[in-house]
Amino acid sequence: MSANVIAFKKREKPKPAKPAGGDGVKRLEALDILRGLCVIGMILVAYAGDWSNRFAVLNHADWQGLVLADMIFPGFLFCVGVALPMSFAARSARQTKTQLFGHVLWRAAALIVLGVVLNFIADPHPEGFRLPGILQRIGVCYALAGGLCLALGRKSDHDFTVPGWPVAGAIAVLVAGYAALLSLWTGPDCAGACFDSVHSLPAVVDRAVFTSAYMWNWGLTDGVVTFDPEGIVSTLGALVNVLLGVVVAGYVRGHGVQGSLIGLFLLGLLLILTGLGMNGEIPVIKKIWTPSFALVSAGFSIIVFVLLAVIADLLKLGRFATFAKVFGANATLAFVLICLFDVVLQLPLLAGVSLHDAAAAQLGAVVPEPRVASLTYSVILVAVIGLILWPLYRKRWFLKL
Length: 401
Known about the structure:
Layout: E1 7-10, H1 24-46, H2 72-91, H3 97-122, H4 134-152, E2 154-155, E3 160-161, H5 164-184, H6 201-210, E4 220-221, E5 224-225, H7 235-278, H8 291-315, H9 319-328, H10 331-345, H11 355-366, H12 370-394, E6 397-400
Antiparallel strand pairs: 1-6, 2-3, 4-5
C-alpha cells in the first residue's frame, strides 16, 4: 500500500531493539499515554453538555493567564516533536532524505486539507467557514519542524539522528524573534507592545489575510470577530513547542529514559520559570501563543512526560495506560470522529431541537448538579469514541496520512 494515501495501516508491534541509551519501549509508552491524555482532555474541554455550567478547570483563560485547559494543545504539539525523529529513524532504511522530505510535505498538506474540510462540514457556507484550525496548525508546524530536522539531521542506512544543540539554537532564535515582533509592532491605535485581542500583530495579520468571515466565530472582542487562536503569526509560538519535543527526543535517545528523567525535569522547570519571568514584558497568552506561553506550556509538557515515564515504570498503569494509548495511537482518527459526531449532534433532528440539546437536557433532569451533568455529556463522548477506537487498537489499525 502506498504511503501517500489516507488509509488505515496495520502497524507491527515494536521490536525490543533499543536506540542508544536504551529504554526505547518505555519512552514510546509514555509518549502514547501523554498523547492520549491530550486527546481525551481536548474532548472534555471542547465538547460540553452545557457551556453555562462548567467546572472552572475545563475553561480556557479568557485572554491572559495560565489554566490547565490551555496546556492540552501544547502537550499534543510536544508529542508531535518527540515523535518526529523516531519517525525518520524508522523510515531511514528505505527512504532517502529527499523522500523523507516528500513524506513530510505530503503529511502536512493532508492534515491541512483535512482540517479545512472538517471546518467546512461543520459550517458549510462557502462565504464564511473557518480556514485556520487545529489540524492546520499541526500540519504547518510538522512541515517546518520536519524540514529543520532533515536539514540538520544525520542519516545512515539504518538510523536518523537530530543534533540537539542546533535545534536548541533555532528555538532561541525563534523565541527572541517572535518576542521582538510582538514588542516592536506598531499599528493603528497601537503605539507598540500591543498584546490585546484587537491590536496585537497576530490579530491584525489574521484579519488582513483571512478576513473575519473566515476566522474562529468565537474569537470575539465586544461581539466582533477579531482574532483566531490558530492564526498565522501565532504559529511561530506553537512551533517552539514542537521543536522542544525534538530536543527532548534526542536527549532521551542519548541517555535512555531513566538516565534522562532528572535532566528533563530540570529543563521543564527552567522553561516554566523563564516563561513566567518574561511575563512582565511578554504576557502569557495562549490565544496568540506568545513566546512566554510557549515556554511555560512546553515546560509543563516535559514535566508531565517525565512523571508519566516514572509512573508507567513504577506502577505499571495497566488498563489506565491502555485506555489512554487507545486514543494516543489513533489521535487523528479520534479528532475526526469527535468533529463529525459533534456536527451530527448539533443538527436539529428532534422537532427543531438538536440531539446535543436533547441529550444535555435529559442528563440535566437525571443529574442534579448542572456542572456534573455537563461533564457527564463530555465523558459519554469520550467513552463512545473509545469504544470505536478500541477494536482498531487491538488489531493495530491506525489512520495514516
